[in-house]
C-alpha cells in the first residue's frame, strides 16, 4: 500500500461510487457504511488509525463482497495489489490491498486498522506515541496527527513534574503563512502567532540571487542572523553617514529604529536570514517602503523636493511589485562604496562566529550584546551549541524575556513559572520558543546530533543567573536547611558558571 494518496476523501468516495454504480444500487448505500468511509479517510489523511465498529450484517457483507480488482471510473484499467497503475486509478484499491477484506473487517472492528502512513512508521521503527505512563492515561485511537505527536513527546506524555497551567511557549515557522514574491519569500512569528511574545517578533526571509528587500525603514529596531548564503546590506543614519557591507553565514546586523536600509542576495543562490524586532506586534507587511511613499506623493511635490521638473515622476512601479523583487547581482563591495560619503561611526554588522566562544565539556556559547557590538542597544543574543545528551544549565534571566530560534537539532525545554507551575515543550529546527521574564528553565539536547539555537533578549546586555552557581555561593548550611541534599550534591556545586553541562 502506498504512503500517499493523490485525491481528497470526497474524490475517493465519488470514484468508488462510480465504480459500483451499476451494481444493484450498492453505490447508494456507500455513505452509510462507516467502516468503509473511515478507512478511506484514514488512509487519505495518512496520519490516523481507525477506531470504528462494524454496525450490521449488511455492512459486513457489502465490504466482503468488494472485488480484489476494481476498475477505474472510466472502466479502462484494472489493477491488482502490486501492479504499477496510473494515479487516477489508484484510489479504488485503497481498501482491498494488501489487507484482505476479511482481515480488514476484523482489524477495523478491533480498532486496529493501520493506514499506509502508520505502516511506514512501523516499518521504520518509529513508535506511535500514546498518552500513557504506568497507572495513568490511556491509548489514543484518533483522529490524531501522528507525525506531530512523534515530534512532541513531552506534550503527549509530560514529565510527572509538569504541573499547573502555562500558556503555549512554542510556535514553528513551518506553521507560519508564507508570502511568496518574484524575488523570494518571507514568513513571520509575532504576537499574532505566539500570543505570549509581546516583546519580540521574528521574520524568516529568503532572497534569491540579486533579489532585493526594498529600501525601507520601520519603527522597530532590526537585528539579524545570517542562516545561509551571502548578502549585501546598506544603510544611512540620521547624520547622513553611509554604511555598506557584505555578510555571510553566522554574521549579524543591527539597524536602529527609523534607520533606512536594504538587503540584497548575493552569489549564485542568494541568502536566507532571521530578523528579530524589539516589538512582538511587529508586522513585516507594515513597513515604510520607498516606492510606496513615491506612489503617494504628488509629482509636483517630488519635483520641488528634488529640484527637477514634476514631469520626470509618475513612473514608479507599484509597491506590490517591489517589496522583495529581482535585480541584477551587484559587483564587488568596493563598487558600491559612495565616493565622498562619511562612514557611520559604529558598524551595523558583526562577525559573531569570529568571537571566542565560552567552551565547556557539554558545548559552547557565544554572547553578543552591546559590549562587543556597540550599536546593538535593543537586542542582546547568545548562540548556544549543545552536544548530544548535554544541556543548557538550569538558569533564568533577570533582565528580559527570552525569545529562542532553533537552527538545528532537537531539544526539550522545561520552564518553571513559580507557584507550582511547570511545563515542558519539544523543539526542532525552525521552531521559535519563548521563556517569560525571570522564569527558570533548561534546554536539553534530546537528539543524536549537535543542537544549535539562538537566545535573544530585548536588552542592551546579556544576563543569566545559574541555579548551580547561586547554590554554590550561598552558605551550605542555608542551602541544606532548604533542600536536605545529599552531601555529594553539595560537593559537586560549581562556583563558576558553566552555561552548557555535559550528559
Summarize the helices and strands and which ones pair or pack.
Elements: H1 9-19, H2 26-29, H3 34-45, H4 57-65, E1 70-71, E2 78-79, H5 101-109, H6 116-124, E3 132-133, E4 136-137, H7 146-151, H8 153-156, E5 170-172, E6 179-181, E7 184-189, E8 201-207, E9 212-217, E10 222-229, E11 231-236, E12 242-247, E13 251-255, E14 261-265, E15 271-277, E16 288-289, H9 290-295, H10 299-306, E17 324-325, E18 349-351, E19 358-360, E20 363-368, E21 380-386, E22 391-396, E23 402-408, E24 410-418, E25 421-428, E26 431-435, E27 440-445, E28 451-457, E29 465-466, H11 467-472, H12 476-483, H13 487-492, E30 500-501
Antiparallel strand pairs: 1-2, 3-4, 5-26, 6-7, 7-8, 8-15, 9-14, 9-16, 9-17, 10-13, 10-15, 11-12, 11-14, 13-18, 19-20, 20-21, 21-28, 22-27, 22-29, 22-30, 23-26, 23-28, 24-25, 24-27
Amino acid at each position: 500500500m502506498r504512503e500517499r494518496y493523490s485525491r481528497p476523501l470526497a474524490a475517493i468516495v465519488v470514484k468508488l461510487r462510480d465504480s459500483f454504480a451499476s451494481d444493484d444500487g450498492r453505490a447508494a448505500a456507500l455513505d452509510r457504511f462507516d467502516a468503509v468511509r473511515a478507512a478511506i479517510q484514514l488512509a487519505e489523511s495518512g496520519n490516523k488509525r481507525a477506531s470504528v465498529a462494524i454496525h450490521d450484517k449488511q455492512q459486513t457483507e457489502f465490504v466482503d463482497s468488494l472485488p480484489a480488482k476494481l476498475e477505474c471510473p472510466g472502466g479502462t484499467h484494472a489493477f491488482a495489489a502490486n501492479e504499477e497503475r496510473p494515479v487516477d486509478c489508484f484510489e479504488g484499491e485503497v481498501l482491498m490491498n494488501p489487507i484482505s477484506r476479511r482481515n480488514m473487517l476484523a482489524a477495523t472492528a478491533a480498532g486496529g486498522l493501520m493506514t499506509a502512513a502508520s505502516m511506514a512508521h512501523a516499518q521504520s521503527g518509529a513508535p506511535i506515541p500514546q498518552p500513557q505512563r504506568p497507572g495513568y492515561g490511556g491509548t489514543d485511537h484518533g483522529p490524531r496527527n501522528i507525525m506531530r505527536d512523534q515530534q512532541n513527546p513531552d506534550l503527549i506524555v509530560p514529565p510527572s513534574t509538569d504541573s499547573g497551567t502555562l500558556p503555549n511557549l512554542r510556535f514553528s515557522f513551518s506553521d507560519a503563512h508564507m508570502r511568496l514574491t518574484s524575488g523570494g519569500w518571507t514568513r513571520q512569528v509575532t504576537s499574532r502567532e505566539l500570543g505570549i511574545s509581546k516583546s519580540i517578533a521574528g521574520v524568516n526571509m529568503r532572497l534569491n540571487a540579486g533579489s532585493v528587500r526594498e529600501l525601507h525603514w520601520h519603527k522597530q529596531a532590526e537585528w539579524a542572523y545570517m542562516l545561509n548564503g551571502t548578502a549585501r546590506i546598506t544603510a544611512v543614519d540620521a547624520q547622513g553617514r553611509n554604511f555598506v557591507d557584505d555578510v555571510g553565514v553566522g554574521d549579524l546586523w543591527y539597524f536602529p529604529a527609523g534607520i533606512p536600509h536594504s538587503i540584497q542576495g548575493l552569489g549564485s543562490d542568494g541568502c536566507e536570514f532571521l530578523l528579530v524586532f524589539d516589538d512582538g506586534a511587529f508586522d513585516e507587511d507594515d513597513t515604510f517602503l520607498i516606492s510606496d511613499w513615491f506612489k503617494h506623493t504628488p509629482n509636483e511635490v517630488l519635483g520641488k523636493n528634488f529640484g527637477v521638473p514634476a514631469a520626470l515622476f509618475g513612473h514608479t512601479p507599484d509597491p506590490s511589485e517591489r517589496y522583495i523583487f529581482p535585480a541584477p547581482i551587484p559587483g564587488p563591495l568596493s563598487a558600491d562604496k559612495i565616493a565622498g560619503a562619511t562612514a557611520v561611526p559604529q558598524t551595523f554588522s558583526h562577525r559573531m562566529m569570529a568571537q571566542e566562544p565560552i567552551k565547556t565539556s557539554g558545548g559552547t556559547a557565544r554572547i553578543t550584546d552591546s559590549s562587543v557590538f556597540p550599536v546593538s542597544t535593543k537586542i542582546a543574543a547568545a548562540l548556544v551549541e549543545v552536544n548530544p545528551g548535554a544541556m543548557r544549565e538550569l538558569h533564568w534571566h533577570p533582565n528580559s524575556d527570552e525569545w529562542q530560534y532553533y537552527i538545528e537539532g532537537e531539544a526539550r525545554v522545561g520552564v518553571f513559572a513559580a507557584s507550582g507551575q511547570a511545563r515542558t515543550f519539544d523543539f526542532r529546527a525552525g521552531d521559535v520558543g519563548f521563556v517569560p521574564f525571570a522564569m527558570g528553565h533548561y534546554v536539553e539536547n534530546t537528539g543524536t546530533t549537535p543542537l544549535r539555537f539562538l537566545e535573544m533578549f530585548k536588552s542592551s546586555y546579556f544576563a543569566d543567573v545559574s541555579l548551580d552557581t547561586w547554590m554554590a555561593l550561598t552558605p551550605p548550611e542555608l542551602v541544606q536547611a532548604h533542600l536536605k541534599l545529599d552531601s555529594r550534591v553539595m560537593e559537586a556545586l560549581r562556583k563558576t558558571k558553566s552555561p552548557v553541562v555535559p550528559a
